[in-house]
Amino acid sequence: MTDEVVTNDLVLAEVIRLLAESNIIRVDRRRHPSWPIDSMAFEDEYSVIAVWTFGSVEDLVAGWGAAQDHVVDFLGANVIATDPKSWDGYLILVAMDGVPATLVAELNNVRSDTRRVRKLVLTADDLPTRVSDPLELAPAVRRTLAPILDLDLDTTPGRTDPLLSLRGRLAGTHNHSAHLDVLIAAYEAGESPLEALHRRLTETHPTETDAP
């Protein structure tokens, strides 16, 4: 198979695929008509995620602030203030060239700037230059998108899910096997382990007002 140059289109396709795997749904473009044609918005129950591409790292450094303004306006117009999504916004910034030495510090500042929305930056320095299969991009793109993707647990034969092996690793240190059972059962059912544990503790230790 002939190697293919990694382009914006390939990267964006992989971003869309990984977000879809984590049940993060693309927003209809009619909800953000003022955005550039190649920009995208996504959402799930907890977050709003925007993806903006730039022709170069220089353009990204110059334009990320305007992109953020658009995303903040979108949040304000579509998400009520009490919704967790109103403060859990992400802006994925993509530029398919290398980072000039003169812009390394400034790009790092963009990455670490968590005001208004959190920024995730993906450049050619984070990716292979050529691939024989678009799926070869997955590990590199997943590293950048890790804060918003579902955990990618290793299910290779012989590997053990760390939560399911928790009881054995805690053996001899705590006597809370019943609580661990609740956590593991909730995890396997796709429910919140903390909420399940809270219900268990509430049932086991009723408050004074619940006492007869």
Task: Give a written overview of the molecule.
By secondary structure, the protein is an alpha/beta fold. It has 2 domains: 4-148; 166-210, no CATH class. Helix content is 39%, strand content 14%. It has helices at residues 8-21, 57-78, 104-112, 138-145, 166-170, 177-188, 193-204, and strands at 4-5, 25-26, 40-43, 48-54, 89-95, 118-123, 130-131. The strands form 2 sheets. The protein has a 5-stranded mixed sheet, with helices on both faces. Strands 1-7 form a two-stranded antiparallel ribbon. Strand 5, helix 3 (104-112) and strand 6 form a beta-alpha-beta unit. Helix 1 (8-21) packs across helix 4 and helix 6 (177-188) packs antiparallel against helix 7 (193-204). The longest helix is centred in the first third of the chain and has 22 residues, at 57-78. The chain is globular, with a radius of gyration of 22 Å. The chain starts with a strand and ends in an 8-residue tail after the last helix.
Specify the overall morphology: globular
Physical arrangement of strands within the biggest beta sheet: 2-3-4-5-6
The count of domains is 2
Biggest sheet record: 5 strands, mixed
The SS-based structural class is alpha/beta
Average pLDDT, rounded to a whole number, is 84
Strand content: 5-15%
Query: What is the end-to-end distance?
Result: 74 Å
The number of helical runs is 7
Task: Write down the Rg.
Answer: 22 Å
Low-confidence stretches: none
Helix-strand pattern: EHEEEHEHEEHHHH
Helix content: 25-40%
Number-wise, the strands total 7
